[in-house]
Amino acid sequence: MTTRKPRKPETFESLLVEMYGEATCAGEGLFLIQGMWRSGTSWLGRMVGAHPQVYLCQHELQSFSRFFEVKPSEQLPFFQPKYEACLKSGFLSMLRHLHAKEKPGAPLFGDRSPGGNATLIKRLFPRAKLPIILRDGRDVCVSVAHLDWTSPGALVESDGQVTVEPSYVRKMAQIYAASVDDYLAVKAAHPADVLILRYEELLRDPAAVMGDVFRFLGVAPGEAASFEKRAMKPQSDGVNDEWTRRFKEDLAVRK
After folding, report:
1. Is residue 186 predicted with pLDDT exceeding 90?
2. What is the domain partition of the chain in residue ranges?
3. Would you call 146 helix, strand, or coil by DSSP?
4. pTM of the entire predicted model
5. Host H or E run for residue 138
6. Distance (Å, rounded) from C-alpha 133 to C-alpha 131?
7. pLDDT tens-digit readout, 127-165
8. What pLDDT shows up at residue 104?
9. Labelling 60: which of 37, 43, 97, 219 has CA 20 to 30 A away?
């Protein structure tokens, strides 16, 4: 009687490869725009997505990565591969569907989602490219404070002047520093796959900076010449350098 050799169990990652192909699962042809909230990710995404060879999803699908921070695997280690595979599969499925529906034929596709974990995203998609936009943290703080419905006390009024509450400034400074540390660590580990650009430089010379972005993504900047008039106008939140008036004097000093 012959003994049948036991079949090696399939991993969830291998099932993803069957569904989408190895290249897609690794992030081939995929770019993921990152940056802090209120740092220009929407504006950058609009300009990138206006290129005829690029599809940019504006639905912030990378937000799925935040569910990894729930970490049910701490209680159930064997559940982690299934959990990660399901989230990654959902992201790829929705992104591919929107790509085919909104801009079929574009060889390069991606998503922009502010506030994500760049280290985690690069681990999930090792071949993906990450354009990361940084803005002056003080302007980020002021802009977020105006829209943060979860912190109604972020803005305070005194003597007819509205300022950012000092404890909120300190909280945002910690979040900003942690995000920048994450971005710099990813850049150091994957220098060819990560491009860090400054919002202020993009504001001063969008054509030059976007030329660098398109070359980084692997498409010709010249093909994008027709979109400049409609895409290069920044989405202003009206707070550039507003920290000089919105911060208390002792918190506005450059360190």
Report:
1. yes
2. 12-251
3. helix
4. 0.81
5. helix 137-147
6. 7
7. 999 999 999 998 898 888 888 777 777 878 777 777 888
8. 92
9. 219
Distance separating alpha carbons of residues 64 and 79, to the nearest angstrom: 17
Q: Which two tokens stand for residue 205?
A: 């010379």
Q: Is the dihedral of CA 222, 224, 226, 229 positive or negative?
A: negative
CATH hierarchy code of domain 12-251: 3.40.50.300
- Give pLDDT, residue 218: 94
Q: Where are the beta strands (DSSP E) in the chain?
A: 30-35, 54-57, 108-112, 130-134, 155-158, 161-164, 194-198
pLDDT of 252 over the 70 cut: no
pLDDT for res 2: 60
Q: Coil, strand, or helix at residue 248?
A: coil
99: its two tokens:
């790509």
How many C-alpha atoms does 87 have within 13 Å on its Cβ side?
21
Run of H or E residues at 222? none
Report yes or no: 62 and 113 within 8 Å, Cβ to Cβ: yes
Report DSSP letters for 33-102, one per residue.
EEE-TTSSHHHHHHHHHTSTTEEEE-S-GGGGGGGGGG-GGGT-GGGHHHHHHHHHHHHHHHHHHHHHHH
Cα of 177 vs its chain's centroid, Å: 16
pLDDT, tens digit (0-9, with 9 covering 90-100), for 51-63: 999 999 988 887 6
Residue position matching structure tokens 């042809």 = 29
219 is written with which tokens? 């498409």
* pLDDT number for residue 209: 92
Q: Rounded distance, CA 218 to CA 112, Å?
A: 18
